[in-house]
Amino acid sequence: MPIKIPKELPAFKVLSNENIFVMNIERAQTQDIRPLKIAILNLMPIKIQAENQLLRYLSNTPIQVEITLLQTKTYTSQNTPIEHLEKFYNYFDEVKNEKFDGLIITGAPVETLKFEDVAYWKELEEIFEWSRENVFSTLHICWGAQAALYYHYNIEKYPLDKKIFGVFSHKVNKINEDLTRGLDDIFYAPHSRHTTTLKEDIEKVKDLDILAESEEAGAFIIATRDKRQVFITGHLEYDRDTLMGEYIRDCSKGMEVAIPKNYFPNDNIDETPLVKWRGSANIVFGNWLNYCIYQNTPFELEKINKLY
């Protein structure tokens, strides 16, 4: 899906070099079609890396996607140049009167905190509530998924004895569902978290389905019956070396952290990690854009109806 982004955004050069079709704003304006409006609330600490990862999977199909990058006002990232944030990001207040076909809420390195203790929790609650009436389908990732399940359904997260860290196999529970269409019966995805959401808590909510899960990592793809709310507990968007970077970071802080499971060949950190999840990531993000949004979103965005 050609991404409509400024030429100056670092992702434009990165994705162009990967032969992924990105479109500058000037070219997009010459095409007489309505692009899908997708907002990304980027809560990750290294925002440019997260931008590149997500935009890669929102690309290369025949429909334009217009991206709006969002940051929180109540907390400013310490790991992204302020010039980048000022140039490319909006605050929620600047877009809250708009409607969007889709919204992605990323993970964040705050999972050991209680939700209410997170600096931007009140702002995030406002965004969750706003999304019910102003977004057709919202995709929540890792901590973003846990936070949304807690806000919308009062589903708690629980600390783990050991961090779920590595690349894990998953099985598809519902083959004919739109989000899992085309996935192998067994597929792989990265996880990196200290907390989990229990399957039995999710199953108590009649409107939620667990579409894919892992014996080691638990429920993975969760969605409402109408796919207006999607929750992914891992990181399909991660690059080859993202887990390696997290491992090196944690080791440098003196933390006790195990080598990511099923990631380095022979568990040798000097060997190049093998990517086992790229095909699955393309399928899931593509399914979300096509079946959950494009095939169902109103052409006139003001006609988006309120959720429950």
From TrEMBL:
<feature type="binding site">
    <location>
        <position position="192"/>
    </location>
    <ligand>
        <name>substrate</name>
    </ligand>
</feature>
<keyword id="KW-0486">Methionine biosynthesis</keyword>
<dbReference type="GO" id="GO:0004414">
    <property type="term" value="F:homoserine O-acetyltransferase activity"/>
</dbReference>
<feature type="active site" description="Proton acceptor">
    <location>
        <position position="235"/>
    </location>
</feature>
<feature type="site" description="Important for substrate specificity">
    <location>
        <position position="192"/>
    </location>
</feature>
<feature type="binding site">
    <location>
        <position position="163"/>
    </location>
    <ligand>
        <name>substrate</name>
    </ligand>
</feature>
<feature type="active site" description="Acyl-thioester intermediate">
    <location>
        <position position="142"/>
    </location>
</feature>
<keyword id="KW-0012">Acyltransferase</keyword>
<feature type="site" description="Important for acyl-CoA specificity">
    <location>
        <position position="111"/>
    </location>
</feature>
<comment type="similarity">
    <text>Belongs to the MetA family.</text>
</comment>
<dbReference type="GO" id="GO:0008899">
    <property type="term" value="F:homoserine O-succinyltransferase activity"/>
</dbReference>
<feature type="binding site">
    <location>
        <position position="249"/>
    </location>
    <ligand>
        <name>substrate</name>
    </ligand>
</feature>
<dbReference type="GO" id="GO:0019281">
    <property type="term" value="P:L-methionine biosynthetic process from homoserine via O-succinyl-L-homoserine and cystathionine"/>
</dbReference>
<keyword id="KW-0028">Amino-acid biosynthesis</keyword>
<comment type="pathway">
    <text>Amino-acid biosynthesis; L-methionine biosynthesis via de novo pathway; O-acetyl-L-homoserine from L-homoserine: step 1/1.</text>
</comment>
<keyword id="KW-0963">Cytoplasm</keyword>
<dbReference type="InterPro" id="IPR029062">
    <property type="entry name" value="Class_I_gatase-like"/>
</dbReference>
<dbReference type="InterPro" id="IPR033752">
    <property type="entry name" value="MetA_family"/>
</dbReference>
<feature type="active site">
    <location>
        <position position="237"/>
    </location>
</feature>
<protein>
    <recommendedName>
        <fullName>Homoserine O-acetyltransferase</fullName>
        <ecNumber>2.3.1.31</ecNumber>
    </recommendedName>
</protein>
<comment type="function">
    <text>Transfers an acetyl group from acetyl-CoA to L-homoserine, forming acetyl-L-homoserine.</text>
</comment>
<dbReference type="Pfam" id="PF04204">
    <property type="entry name" value="HTS"/>
</dbReference>
<dbReference type="InterPro" id="IPR005697">
    <property type="entry name" value="HST_MetA"/>
</dbReference>
<keyword id="KW-0808">Transferase</keyword>
<dbReference type="GO" id="GO:0005737">
    <property type="term" value="C:cytoplasm"/>
</dbReference>
